[in-house]
Amino acid sequence: xxxxxxxxxxxxxxxxxxxxxxxxxxxxxxxxxxxxxxxxxxxxxxxxxxxxxxxxxxxxxxxxxxxxxxxxxxxxxxxxxxxxxxxxxxxxxxxxxxxxxxxxxxxxxxxxxxxxxxxxxxxxxxxxxxxxxxxxxxxxxxxxxxxxxxxxxxxxxxxxxxxxx
Length: 165
Known about the structure:
Layout: H1 3-24, E1 30-34, E2 40-43, E3 52-56, H2 64-126
Antiparallel strand pairs: 1-2, 1-3
Helix pairs in contact: 1-2
């Protein structure tokens, strides 16, 4: 819980208890005194010499029923504030847990990538630098070998020539 949430909770509690505490004291006369330096002070007695004063009206005291109602309202406000603070604390804890889980996952991925890179580097170190010649060696020109076609056998004579005269 950060400072703002704590301050807000205390402020709500003070506002909730103010009507209860104010109602318990009897109504008193309050004087607002402003001195020559324009500093303001409130007092239940008369203003000191050299300062001008005005009377501040205070509300009448609360009845017993109103005090009980204010007390019950303040109790419910305090319960609501505590429930809200508990829920906010739970949500903050859940956010921290999720963030930590995300960080752990990212760290595992990073370590896995580092391991894979180290394995690749190790494999590359065992392979020769050049597996083929840097400059290609072209084969020398050799004329194609020509094999003579087999001789055709003579075709058998189909008919003998007939002597015509």
